[in-house]
Sequence to fold (313 residues):
Amino acid sequence: MKNVLVVSYSQSGQLADIVGALSRPLAEAGVRVHHEPLRPEPDFPFPWPFFAFLDVFPESARLEPRPNRPLALAPEAAFDLVILAWTVWYLSPAQPVTAFLQSVEGKCLLAGKPVVSVVACRNMWLCAFDVLRELVTEAGGRLVDHVALTDEAPAFATFITTPRWMLTGRRDRFLGLPPAGVDARQIEGAARFGVALADALARDKEKRGQPMLEGLRAVKVAPHLVLSERAGRRAFRFWSGFVRRCGRAGQRRRIPALMLFVLYLIVMIATVVPLNLVLQRLAAPLLARRVAALVRHYEQPSGAGNARMTAHE
Ligand SMILES: Cc1cc2nc3c(=O)[nH]c(=O)nc-3n(C[C@H](O)[C@H](O)[C@H](O)COP(=O)(O)O)c2cc1C
Fold:
């Protein structure tokens, strides 16, 4: 019997639903699934008070997370495969996931293990995935697959619906905009990854260090976001450093710096982001090769192909 460890952190329950859909076929196939939800100490609020939502920015971007409570399982527990289900906070992995990957316990559990990454977020996971890949490697794990599920509503809509959801807990239709988050069809569809993993485990494929989720449309990389995200990450590096110099997490004296950061974000979203998209379109022939190479990079290891979709639908 194969043993799979699922590590996750979900606030609203969206990622928890995806983990549920993906784990069910594994359990049905006789795989022993151990689920370990991460528990920060103290936990982050949901819905978020406005300043708490902003206040996690510097430490998320700088990979200096709040620690988690000890795990329920022994760090020396042995697993055949680890599924790491995570979300994105400010273009970086959410703090509880970073804390897990940096912890002695996390490193012990991941050492030498094949790791499947599953991210669910608004739509900007590329830079965070670079970070996650590095943290998994530093922890001694081998990242063999990556699945990304995102909110498929237009970006201008999710700029409104995602913060509304995070700050009020409400994700329903609003001002004619679609509901926030990953839609139910995609969440249920995550079961195909569980079916494919169960099949791969039955054939010992996890031992080969090769992807097991190819041909299942595991990721879809939006070419227009590739360069924007990189620019955003550079800006976040500057701003997180600036806010940090003004005070530590939770200190009131960094509120003015956080307000400046919000102002910057609003101006960027209203002006530079649309301008950048127009410029990218105009410069498309010059940028095409670089963007195509980056898209290929982010599609690794599981790929965007759909050759095996019918077998799993
Ligand atoms: C503080 C914070 C920052 C976030 N930043 C991003 C981001 O940079 N990119 C993105 O695509 N989603 C971002 N999100 C959305 C999350 O990735 C995720 O979709 C959402 O929190 C729901 O996940 P849950 O299962 O934990 O409820 C952010 C959410 C929070 C709470």
